[in-house]
Amino acid sequence: MIVRIIIDLFLILGCFFAFAGAVGLLRMPDSFTRMQSSTNIATFGVLWTVLGVAVYAFSNQNFVFGIKTVMIGIFIVLTSAVAGHAILKGGYKHGIRPENLVVDEYRRDNPNE
Amino acid sequence: MIEFVYVGIFYVILALMLLYRVLKGPSVVDRAVAADSIDILTAIALIVFSIYSNRSIYLDIALVLAILGFLGTVLIARYLEGRL
Amino acid sequence: MNSIVILNTLVIIAIIVSAILTVKFDNLLSSIIALAVTGSFVALEFILLHAPDVAIAEAAVGAVLSPVIFIITLKKVKEGKER
After folding, report:
1. Is the per-residue pLDDT at C25 higher than 70?
2. Cα-Cα end-to-end distance for chain B
3. pLDDT in tens, A4-20
4. What is the pLDDT of residue A70?
5. Are A and C neighbours with ≥3 CB pairs closer than 8 A?
6. C-alpha to C-alpha distance for A77 and A14, rounded to whole angstroms
7. A-chain residues within 8 Å CB-CB of B68?
8. What is the C-alpha to C-alpha distance for residues C50 and B3, in angstroms, rounded to an integer?
9. Which InterPro entries match (chain C) (predicted)?
10. Using one digit for the tens of pLDDT, what is the confidence trace for A22-58?
11. Cβ(A46)–Cβ(B44) under 8 Å?
12. Chain-centre distance of CA A46, in angstroms?
C-alpha cells in the first residue's frame, strides 16, 4: 500500500513538471526563454515518471524492466543538455537574438562569429 | 497497474499541445525545440505503455527513439550553425 | 469507452495534423522537422497496434534517418545554387 502511494506521488510529480514545461513552451514570449522552459520536460518530467515506473517494476521483482527504464531515463537526462546547448549556439549563429538583450558578452568575446 | 495508460494519454495530449508550437513558431529554432520535446514525450509514453501491457521488448523502441532523436536535433543545430 | 481507443484516436489525430503540416509549410527545413515529428508519432501508433518489429524500423528510418538524408540534400542543393 505504501509502495502504491509512492508510485502515485512520483507519477503526479512527473505529470506536473511535464505540463509546466509544455505550457511554458507554448506561452513564453521569446525564443531563448522557450528553449529554457523545454528543459523542464527533459529533466524533471522524465526523471519522476521513470522513477515511478522503476519503483513499480522493482516492487514486482521485474528487474529487467527496472534496469532498462532507469538506463533510458539517465540517457535522456544526459543528452538533453547537449542537444540544448548545440541548438542554442546554432540559433545564435543563425541570427536569433533575445528581445530585451542588454549585454551580449558572447559577441564581445568572439567578435568575428 | 491499469492506471499507467492514463499517464500515457496525458503525455500524448501534451505532445498534441506542442504541435501548436510546431505550427506557429516564428523561427526554425522554436520548431526544432518543440520537435525535440515531442520526441522525448513520445519516448516516455512508450515506456508507460510498455509497462501497462507488460512487454519488455517495447522499451527497446523507446531507447532507439531517444538516441536517434538526439542525433537528429544535433544535426539540425549543425545545419543552422553553417558547418555541416 | 475503452482507454486504448482514446489513446489510438489521439495518436491518429496527431499523425494527421503533423502530416498536413509537412505538406503545407513554405520553409523546407520546417517541413523536414514536421516530417520527423510524423515519424515518431507513427512509431507510437505501430506500438499501439502491437507490432514492435515494424515500430523499431519506423523509429530508426522514418523518425531520424530520412530527415537526416533530406537535410544533407538541402545543404548540397543550396551549395549548388550559390556556385
Report:
1. yes
2. 46
3. 999 999 999 999 999 99
4. 92
5. no
6. 14
7. none
8. 19
9. MrpA_C/MbhD, Nuo/plastoQ_OxRdtase_6_NuoJ
10. 999 999 888 888 888 888 888 888 999 999 999 999 9
11. yes
12. 7
Given CB atoms, is B79 within the 8 Å cutoff of chain A?
Answer: yes
Contact at CB, B46 and C30, closer than 8 angstroms: no
**C57 burial level (CB within 10 Å; 0-12, 13-18, 19+):** middle
Could you give the angle at the alpha carbon of B67 between the alpha carbons of A26 and A70, nearest 5°? 90
Q: Name the grid cell of C80.
A: 549548388
Residues from chain B that touch A79, judged by Cβ atoms under 8 A, are 66-67, 70
Enter the C-alpha cell of residue B38.
515531442
pTM score, whole prediction: 0.92
- The kind and range of the H/E element at A37 are helix A31-40
- B–C interface: beta-carbon pairs under 8 A: 110
* Alpha-carbon gap, residue B12 to C48, rounded angstroms: 12
Nearest to B32 by CA among A97, A79, C4, A83: A83
User: What type of residue is A35?
Assistant: M
pLDDT higher than threshold 70 for residue C82 = no
ipTM of the shown complex: 0.91
